[in-house]
Amino acid sequence: MREERALVAEASNETKIAEDTQIDALFESLKVDVVRGIQDEGGVASNLVEALMLAKYLERVGDHAQNIAEWVEYALTGRYKGEVLG
């Protein structure tokens, strides 16, 4: 049973890492769009900055989810970021 939970935790952690990478890429893409929008449409700059801040907060939520997944994997398997600890 413990081995089964370890496999599930590892697969879940790999998924979270992949999703976090996608979230990071989306944030970087949005940041480029916001800068371009501010340069082109100065009147909506405050709205664009607020959208960028919201995107950054969501990106941080993704980072925290990844950290939680890594610690769950450690709790179930003794491995942290692929390395056996302790």
TrEMBL record:
Protein name as catalogued: PhoU domain-containing protein
Transmembrane segments: none
InterPro entries linked to this entry: PhoU-like_sf, PhoU_dom
Domain PhoU: 17-72
SUPFAM superfamilies: PhoU-like (SSF109755)
Domain of life of the organism encoding this protein: Bacteria
Pfam families for this protein: PhoU (PF01895)
